[in-house]
Write a structure and sequence with these properties.
heterodimer; A: 314 residues; 13 strands; 36% helix; 27% strand; B: 293 residues; 0% strand; globular
Chain lengths: 314, 293
Amino acid sequence: MSAPVVFDDVAKWYGEVLGINGVTAQLGPGVTGLLGPNGAGKSTLLKVATGLLRPNRGRVEILGSDPRRDIEIHRRVGFCHDGEDFYDTLSGLDFLRFSLRLNGFGIRQADQLAREALEIVGLADQAHKRVGAYSKGMRQRLKLGQTVAHKPDLILLDEPLAGMDPVGRHRTLELIRQWGEAGCVVVVSSHILHEIDTLTNNIMMLSHGRLLAEGDIHEVRDLLSEHPHQIYIECADPRALSRHLIALEEVQKINFERQRRGIMLETFQPDLLYQQLAKVVVEERIEIELMTSPDDNVQAVFDYLTHGRTEESD
Amino acid sequence: MPVYAQHYRRWMGQTTPRWLRWTVITRYHLRQLFTGKGRLALIALLVLSGAVHLTFLAIIYILANAELLSFLGQVKLPEVNAEFFIYPFVPQGFIVGLLTLIVGSGLIADDRRDNAVPLYLSKPLTPTEYLVGKCGVLAVFTLAVTAVPVNLLFLFEVLVHGGRAFFKAHWWLPLSITSFSVVITALCGAVILMASSLVKKGSLAGVFAIGLFIGHNVLTGILVSSFRNEKLMRLSLQFDLHRLGLWLFGLDDSPTAGAYPFSGQSAGLVILTVIVVCLAIARWRIRPVEVVK
């Protein structure tokens, strides 16, 4: 019996631009982290897996079927892509109902499953609010709801934590872990090593469209000690936020971004800092507009890995 | 080796039949249109269309009532025959055009702008079904102002004025009315969906469609006068549609049809070609992933 997700020498290029090349891997149940800097080919690989893109070479098999030939297999797949695929005039509940109806559910089933999904992603109290009035983090959570509402076997998440507030982030990580533990095949892409680190030990590392490493994350984790994790936060009053954060021993450095209303934090203990951050935000009632992490540290690790390899092969 | 719990169970209940899946898109858009900003314009057009049909209804009613007819005196009313039922299509053509622009221009363009196409195509739905769902939205409106009211007009004529004799002589008219309405719907739908698939802004798609309509008619006029060949008139979809309508309504021998230097069948062929080409372009443009080079 083959693995739920099989990539066999898969290549995809856009004209002269390479998306992915020669990717061969098998993914089983549980959470697999797809790690790579921006432009590494993570989104391309996920889109090839869902059948949205046709590979130029190689074979893709999900849940025993070719995703481009067996259209019904999509009912068993949940895909959270990186775009903003929303209709702002719909309410969150209506958006999920519509998505479920497209999956082939009847009106009553769609309503029931949509409400369940909103509950799961913590948007039940915002169900009737227009999506246009949702914050970035809420939209991300709604996207997650759309991905899992139809109870898929295979869940593909493309940068699911991008732009999420600390509370939503914590909740989402917990959900992803639960889905993996429940036996789902979950693939999570990210350019932030720390995010994947908190989710799973099982990783695939992509760089320049090629599969760079596959397996246990621990070996890579050590490399991080040399490179601090960066967190960029935008809020109405960054000075007030920084006053609270500077007192935390997890924070190594705070830089003010003059062009925007944001601050850049550096830390060697991202886990602890994210926890502290959530506490500060809730206690001080600070509304976070944007929270993201630049890929400087992961890029450094990749540079190290690729450079190291090149030197070895030389 | 990690051991995973197996308590997660996928949905094993019934789902809707695959061939009905596209209707979700149609229904969703219809709902959106009647709750969106353009609903007043839509309602106004539907009311205007109803007023046009009421005029024809009134004519049949007057013809059926001798007292009313004598009251009107010298006013000459048209005879109710096959040609009578093609008349409503002339003003309705204008209304269908406006409806097509309002309803159709954003159908694909808005999805492309919102990057929503992957949302559809990552579901058990093919690009063709997506396109059919979008066509369905237009079909509801265009058939609501053509096939439905004109067929009701025919029924009214049979029940109130012409009776069984009229039905026996013109039993095929509902087929003609319906097929002509379907051709108009398919043509308008294909052109606007193609325009909508080429841009990312609904208003641009509307401008593009109007440009195509005016542009190709102007070009036809130039070609006809330059080459002094009236057969080139068939390049105008407006003429083709009228000529095809005359053929479908059994009016091939009428003086109006005689004025055209080409047959109804050849007009139909031109229209069919345009529909196929436009839908093929729209289908080709429906891509789950936009590649930015």
